[in-house]
Amino acid sequence: MAAIHILSEQLVNQIAAGEVVERPASVVKELLENAIDAQASRIVLEVEEAGKKLIRVSDDGSGIPAEEVALALASHATSKIATGDDLEGITSLGFRGEALASVASVADVRLVSRTADALEATEVTVSGGKAQPPCPASGPVGTTAEVRNLFRYVPARRKFLKTDATEMGHITEQAARIALAYPGVHLTVTHNGRSVYQLPPCESVRERIGAFFGADLAASLIEVTSDEPAGRLWGLVGPPHLARATTGMQYLFINGRYVRDRSLLHALREAYRGLLEGRRQPVAFLMLTVPPERVDVNVHPTKVEVRLRDAHLLYGQVLATVRERLLGPGLTPSVQAPAPAGGGGPAPSEGDSERDARVREAVADFLHSPPATQQPRLPLARQETGVAREASVGAHRGMPPTSRSGLERPRAPDGGGGEAQRVEQEPAAGRAVQLHNTYLVAETEDGILIVDQHALHERVLFEEIMERLERGPLESQRLLMPVTVSLSDREMAAVETHREALARLGLEVEAMGPRDVGIQAFPSLLERGDPEGTLRDFLAWAQVVESPPTPRQVLEELAHVAACRAAVKAGEPLKTEEIETLLAHRDAAHTAATCPHGRPTALILRKRDLEKQFGRDYAAGRRATETDDVLPY
Ligand code: ADP
Ligand code: MG
Pick the residue with more confidence: 450 or 271? Predict the structure, then answer.
């Protein structure tokens, strides 16, 4: 071994660059962040050959005093923090004083800057790690940082660069993150002299989203907001039908910084529980503002991960805020909407989700059908709950399997067709119908019931599983072919940790390799469930759950993911008797223990309130817009 010696500054910086400067987009990120930190209101990003040849960021920010321009390129040189205390409350995007020095060690850099009170700009160039003395230059107030020939001095890195299209994709992603977090900044992006983005300053994040992801998507997003308990949360989230295959459209910003936080992204996914098919991922743009001293930014070289002091409070806040908006009060104005003109129902707000729209349509459809008294009573009103529980709910996703074929699904009322004909065609369905393959609408004693079929079925199955678990392990059924699932090391460890609970549920999992497991058996109760999806959903939870969960929490979560996976989905047509069976289980499911992720499965429109909406409200005095028109169940 050679003698121990101190590395040259150039080499030290190259090593630091290894962490911070992975690809052209990393340089773009650092330069854009510097411009934002300098309070720029206008930023121009010019790129040539996907940043391999040139990256130039010009801003109209504060500029750097002439005597400090050279220093800006030195390592550990920053104007953003001075003492250890400053580290406790970072309010700028940068603070390490490493970026420019790192970049200058792996590329040729030219920095031109001028403050408002300087008569001219000052220029410093660094080439091959050697800095030229600063010299006067012409230029406007602000800073231009030019980076040429990236990785010229570290050819190994250059080899890892991908195609221009890929690298450019990473660059625009960085530009998007800054543009979304700072909509008031004018941002221009060009590639090889051609305009890529031209974003004038605007007040709304929605507009910026439109520029990057299309006006349609932007227009359909739903606004969410809350101020408690951990900080200010504001965001725009996608209605469930916009969900994607990946988490790529989940943007989370904390104090103006784009971060990826597993826990908060999990909270977001949880807010959509029961609303999404399988592993689909919601679209969301969430902006959190918390006291800077509650966020530790100094944990990751590119600061894309942070440590949050109030992680569990923020988790709950994100979950509750988003979920309440998706499921809760947003529905009230929608259900009132079909009231006739002059009925006083507020117009649906701009942010109403697709789900709301579907309920609205479903109710409108239903209200257009003939008056209730002319039709047979709903069978479920006569059905004994106890009898219903004897039915094969659990064993076959709540329905006899044979009933899923050969029968016509109930026809949605259309307001046309003769009454006699209608009754003849739907003797069994009576007053319960499925609308939009998603909602079950039925008559009750004093109103109209609207049920979300997936939410209800999930709830019914959950209660069923929990009830059986009280009595002992669930009966399981060996799968004809074990389902092989590839897992990460952490997921493998989680399987070990929770093996007992998994077995109790009837989910038999065996290691089949260092990173593969085979699901050998699955609870027979969930014949049509999804073994792999259930395991994956459970492991996703196990990864992010805060403190070690109690055995009860583990079982509840297992019951939940299994029920969610096995339940009928929104959009699945149901047979008449499936509808009936499901509705018959509603009362039983609701009187049983509340599930940990309790969410409404049904809405009730009270007859009294309908009368009011239709101007039959002779009792008078009550406003049509009162919020108790619709009771979330
Ligand atoms: P950091 O941003 O962590 O401080 P950098 O290496 O990115 O470290 O920048 C070093 C210093 O150079 C900054 O602290 C800032 O004072 C100055 N600087 C860099 N870019 C700009 C800019 N665009 N406008 C004004 N000052 C800048
Ligand atoms: Mg910086």
Answer: 271
Ligand 1, atom 17, lies closest to the CA of 72
- Letter for the amino acid at 385? T
3-state class percentages of the chain: helix first, strand second, coil last, to nearest 5? 40, 20, 40
- Alpha-carbon separation of residue 453 from 406, 450, 581 (angstroms): 21, 9, 11
End-to-end alpha-carbon separation of the chain, Å? 73
Q: How is residue 50 annotated by DSSP?
A: G
User: Of the bound ligands, which one is closest to the alpha carbon of residue 81?
Assistant: 1
Give CA–CA dist 169/165, Å, rounded.
6
Q: How remote is the CA of residue 27 from the centroid of ligand 1, in Å?
A: 13
Ligand 1 atom 19: residue of nearest CA: 34
Cα(79)–Cα(490) distance, integer angstroms: 40
Q: Which residue type occupies 204? A: S
**Nearest in space to 321 (alpha carbons), one of 223, 253, 454, 205:** 223
Exposure string of 356-395, with b = 16+ CB inside 10 Å and e = fewer, is bbbbbbbbebbbebeeeeebeebbbeebeeeebbebebbb
pLDDT digit string (tens) for 249-268? Answer: 999 999 999 999 999 999 99
Q: Can you read off the two tokens belonging to residue 196?
A: 């890529």
- pLDDT-derived band at 138, boundaries 50, 70, 90: very high
Res. 175 pLDDT band, cuts 50 70 90:
very high
Give, as one character, the DSSP assignment of residue 150: T
**Residue 588 binned pLDDT confidence (cut-offs 50, 70, 90):** low
Strands of 460-617 (E only): list them. Answer: 476-486, 508-513, 516-523, 602-606
Residue 82's Cβ-count burial label (10 Å; 0-12, 13-18, 19+) is exposed
Distance of CA 69 to the CA centre of its chain: 42
Evaluate: CB of 231 within 6 angstroms of ligand 1.
no
> Which ligand 1 atom minimizes the distance to the CA of 96?
3
Question: Which ligand ends up closest to the CA of 104?
Answer: 1
Q: How far is the CA of 582 from the centre of ligand 1 (A)?
A: 63
pLDDT range class, residue 354, cuts 50, 70, 90 = low
Q: Regarding beta strands 186-191 and 42-48, do their DSSP bridges make them parallel or antiparallel, or are they unpaired? A: parallel
Quick one: which ligand is closest to 96's CA? 1
CA–centroid distance, 25 to ligand 2, in Å, is 14
| Ligand 1 atom nearest to 95, measured from its CA | 3
Q: Which two tokens stand for residue 203?
A: 């007040």
pLDDT tens column, 38-58:
999 999 999 999 999 999 999
Q: Is the CB of 102 under 6 A from ligand 1?
A: no
Contact criterion met (CB below 8 Å) for 107 and 99 = no
Bridge partner residues of 375 (DSSP): none
Rounded CA gap, 33 and 38, in Å? 9
- Decide: 49 and 168 in contact? Cβ < 8 Å: no
pLDDT tens for each residue of 527-568: 778 898 899 889 888 877 767 788 888 888 888 888 888 888
E strand intervals along 52-102: 54-59
Give yes or no for residue 64 CB within 6 A of ligand 1.
yes
